[in-house]
């Protein structure tokens, strides 16, 4: 590049001497020299020569000549590198104006110009505006079929999504860019390095630092090959590598890379400018992590001084500097100073600096970059809380509580902006940390005021931390039904959802096969990518053109304690848990009271794991020890607040893996499992994802629908490679079946004595039959094998048979269930481990049950471990008989377990054999058809017919 610059300058000198009025040639030389300086990251000289080119160009060309537009584009690039965004936008818009005048508004160059403007708005953190420009570019690139344009655009959309925290969605776009790049570039192209760098950014944001470093190293290799040692691209990659090592707590290695980046910045920017500040911030953070606060403060202040000296409009760096300084003052217990700097950090993000009352009338839409606002608000609230604890002045606590309310508004805005499921789960963890602090603040206030309002506010935050994704999904379904959407739009949404489930299934099938077809996988992934784009577009249309739909989908109301108490009877108490690392809170809500207890629970997850293992390994002594310890830790401190004999438990975190009914209420000397002091003996227990989901009905349906639907649809797993009979029979018919039946069929026969319906087994127990009939029954009983995928919960599945039918693969995946309509009163998943799964912090357990809940099921009977075929039929017989007698589901399950204990074989009394089932959701009784009247009517009719035949026959004989 240096040699090229030398030749350009020689050419310019010759042109100026030979023909100084040959403006066309001189223009070209100035432009090339400016571009060379840009490549060398010498932006000051690049501007000098581009400005000269613009002056000469106006002599050589008309004002709207395409060459003038090109120079404006290059000047815009330089100003963007210098973070002078207003000037960058001015020049990009001049370029766009000239391009449209020359080529019309559909040309490829117009798309590039839209994209450049969008990139500036990303830097300005005005993401919605940026995305509007990206969409304009996408329409052009799609129509023109320009792979290079799509590569740049997908890459930039990925960057935007990284900034918004939508990392999994960003990865989709980045992978798409990489696919295109590998087709059109060689391995040492700059754009390939940028794509690798972006991949590293995404994995870094997902805390996969090993994978991030892998991509950063690939990018570094290419950048060094192209640019040598002192280029801004190397500075960028050195900073990123430093960040990754810092996260890995390899601080010396991180500092080495930060210093390399700082050296390049000083070379490029002459020890001045925002990039120097950025390097100082990185080094300051490193010292802060090592509790070297004075050193950290020195670097933060040096960086801030640079920004103030050059009057930089780089508000993100300015805000970050203030934020970091505030954190140091907090650590040093200089709380007033810390609050001052938090306020300065907030103020730099205000869009309209003329709004003077921004602290009094908080509106998240007043600010840029809500992710930054969230961490600033959280930091300020924590500082005020610390100040209260130090000075015992409640004004600080009250101010902190007010800030948590503002932060909650920010959480709502961020949550609504996310479309990708994985990104929502990731953000839920972040939100839960905020809500933990808010709960603590209200409980501190309650100790002083004894005002029940504080308990209710604490409960509000506990609720806000739970099952938000499932709530939003249910809200979405409800909104589409009640917002007056056109049928064709609803149908498009259903088709997209069904197609997405299909292609996800095809990818899983390919990855599971012995010979993986990468071409097919790539084709399916491309189709999935296009479907995701279409779903995003549909969502945008729904949310902008149908405001009622938007309002219903994103309603953020949390059910009030008073409303819960109205729905509780005097026999039922609700327990809602909120867990953190070493402390948990339990909220006890009964008909007329609310109570909150803080519990010390260090090592809770480990103890629950040991409890679970003691059951599945049938280790009675260890089980007795662990179950009583957990009872003393979680239930005993609050049991005197329980009202009635029924409990609704809303677990949190690892508590989802705890079967509360199996806790022992005292130290039992007996080794007879039937005589142990189970909590089950005292309470009928049901579980729920959240109070909001349990008590707010998202799918209100006419009671007459229950009459229309039939009683029970049953399936049992079959190894159809060994089965010759293929039948679909009525459950009534199965009652009279004789002989030995396989375990799952014995289970279905046990319930056939009690309820009527349809039973599929053998080669008829296929996925297609389930999908066709699932919406027609009040009860679904699936005695199938299940498999939980903890890494990708959406790929958890139920097995119907081992063979494939002609339509389906007979594997019902969680993501397929999401696309179905299953409005059952109860779904029984008596497969293995259907109620287990990965715990998503802030969301709960990612089990197969979640998918059935979204599909419309009101309640679920799930299993915590591999259930026994030998004992399940007996347990199910008791359960269904109790339901038929009119018991609610929780009471029916409790009594079924107690009945089993009273009658079972002594060798099958351990909790492993009967304790794995638990109920989630609405525990109301199931309305069964009363066939007694029908039988009497039929009997009378038959009697009359027989009587008529008798007299007719006698008369005939006489005649």
UniProtKB/TrEMBL annotation:
CHAT domain ranges (all copies): 625-922
Coiled coil: 404-438
Recorded superkingdom: Bacteria
TPR repeat ranges per the UniProt record: 111-144, 193-226, 235-268, 277-310, 319-352
Ranges annotated as spanning the membrane: 934-953
Pfam family, one: CHAT
Keywords assigned: Coiled coil, Membrane, TPR repeat, Transmembrane, Transmembrane helix
SMART domains referenced in this protein's UniProt entry, alphabetically: TPR
Gene3D superfamilies per the UniProt record, alphabetical: Tetratricopeptide repeat domain
InterPro entries linked to this entry: CHAT_dom, TPR-like_helical_dom_sf, TPR_rpt
Protein name in UniProt: CHAT domain-containing protein
Transport is among the record's keywords: no
